[in-house]
Amino acid sequence: MQINQHARLSTAPMMDWTDRHCRMLHRQLTRQTLLYTEMVTSAALVRGGALHLLEFSPDEHPVALQLGGSDPKELAQAAVLGQTAGYDEINLNVGCPSDRVQSGCFGAVLMESPALVADCVAAMRDAVEVPVTVKCRIGVDDQNPEEVLPEFLARIVAAGCERVAIHARKAWLQGLSPKENRDIPPLDYPLVLRMKEYFPNLHISVNGGITSLDEARAFLEAGLDGVMIGRAAYHTPTDILAAVDPVIFGTGEVVAAEDAVHAMLPYIEGHVTGGGRLGQITRHMLGLFAGRPGARVWRRMLSEGAHLPNAGSSLVLEALTQVAQQQEMARQCE
Ligand SMILES: Cc1cc2nc3c(=O)[nH]c(=O)nc-3n(C[C@H](O)[C@H](O)[C@H](O)COP(=O)(O)O)c2cc1C
Question: Which SUPFAM superfamilies match (predicted)?
Answer without folding.
Answer: FMN-linked oxidoreductases
